[in-house]
Fold this protein.
Amino acid sequence: MYKAKKPNKAAVTHLLDLEFQSRRNFIDSNALKEQDRPAKILQAYPCFKELDHVMDELRRVIEPNNSQYTSEVKGRWENLYSKVQFYGVMKKVMKPPRTLNGGK
């Protein structure tokens, strides 16, 4: 379904939700060598080359019952990022100027 010219993201997501446990068993199995594991996973599930599907998989692993997890994480990240930027700017502004020899 993903290999169609215009894959239906909702349908692919629904299928990924349905087969989550079998996919986890495939990924965690000892049949895959450690060094070959990423290539084999992407070969079996090419949809994981897209960020949206990877974020949905993260949601399935961390909070399977929270369908809004990805948007909540993005919101928390934006909030943290803005606070860090503000702190960095304020720290730079509040720093007294230094002369070339290091004195204040």
